[in-house]
Amino acid sequence: MKRNRILALLLSLVLLCALTACGTKSATDPTGTTGETTGDTQPSQTEETKENTTMEHTKVLFTMENGGTFTIELYPEYAPKTVENFIKLVESGYYAGTTFHRVYPGFMAQGGEGADTPSIKGEFASNGFSQNTLSHKRGVVSMARTTVKDSASSQFFICYDDVSYSLDGDYAAFGKVIDGMETVDAFCEVEREYNGFDRVPTAPVEPIVIASAEIVK
Q1: SS3 content of the chain, % helix, strand, coil (to 5)
Q2: What pLDDT sits at residue 54?
Q3: Is residue 202 part of a domain?
């Protein structure tokens, strides 16, 4: 009888060890799993995967009347309608013959002023468009506008320095100069006079003329 009790105890211990070894992972498992998954479950897209997702960006080559050039890369993921409008203007030849009429060293160079063009929605945070997180830093291209938020049309500006503190969230940044920034910097060497509202001379005495703007691969 005693022998039978010992055998029963040993069998109970074996069964207990077997159950412990086959147990499921707990909610505190370091792998992050909290139970079984089915074969139909797809892994979620990680932030790293999102960041590595690439998009083909249109590039625009600007050639100045003096022969200088610069290239802007457009980012529709930040401002899709703005980019669409800009491409339409470029393809129509709109920018040929327009000028950079406002050059403010340390701030920005503004151009593209010409015949009236339809205004577009201001794609920036203070206008209900939080998708645009492109910051106004050196080389970034953004749309000029009046105090009316949906008044941008054809005029754009290129940032000389980091001016994110005063422009982010209130202007639609949509691209960046990726080549030829020295051409834009050279605008600052042109003699300028007061334009009537800037605190420093910003109106070029001799026009800074855009000879052409074209889509490039």
Answers
A1: 25, 25, 55
A2: 53
A3: yes
